[in-house]
Amino acid sequence: MVGKATAVANVDGTTVFCPKGETGAVAVVDQVAAQQAQPGMQSMMQMHEQTMAEMKATRARLDTLTKEMNDASGSQKVDAVAAVVNELVRQQNAMYERMGQIHGQMMSGRGMMGGRNMMGR
Fold first, then answer.
1. Which of 56, 57, 77, 96 can pair with 72 through a Cys bridge, CB separation 3.0 to 4.6 Å?
2. Each residue's pLDDT tens digit in the chain (121 positions)?
3. CA distances from 24 to 14, 20, 27, 43 (A)
4. What is the 3-state secondary structure (H, E, C) of 13-75?
């Protein structure tokens, strides 16, 4: 069949052949590219779910501290305000660290696209 087929594309080292004159070649190439991108998509979804869970937990922690601050009075109020401020600083630092990690992964080619650039290569 190789003699009667035309190489349509080379997708990450996989040469995709299609019979001469076939119009489904683009669909075949798209299907191969989608199958190869799936692990990267799964990784991205897991990272997203983990990030959302962490955000929910940090929001709950801040909500609890804020309620305690609002309910406090006297010297306890000062301590509660300090706890809220400290939590805000901790969360801000954690966010910057996480963003730095994601940036590093993307720059090293291990980012959300599973090592592929915007063109899927």
1. 77
2. 445 555 455 555 555 555 555 555 555 555 655 555 566 677 878 888 988 999 999 999 999 999 999 999 999 999 999 999 999 999 999 989 988 888 887 788 755 555 444 445 5
3. 17, 11, 5, 30
4. CEEEEEECCCCCHHHHHHHHHHHHHHHHHHHHHHHHHHHHHHHHHHHHHHHHHHHHHHHCCCH
Q: How do the domains of the chain map onto residue ranges?
A: 2-107
Sorted by sequence, the CB contacts under 8 Å of residue 37 that are 6+ apart come out as: 113, 114, 116, 120
**In this structure, what DSSP letter does residue 111 have?**
S
Which tokens is 115 given?
């090592």
Could you count the other beta carbons within 10 Å of the beta carbon of residue 62? 15
The owner of tokens 């119009």 is 23
Query: In the block, which residue shows the tokens 């191969």?
Result: 32
In terms of Cα–Cα distance, which of 29, 32, 33, 34 is closest to 18? Answer: 29
* Claim: this prediction has a pTM higher than 0.85: no
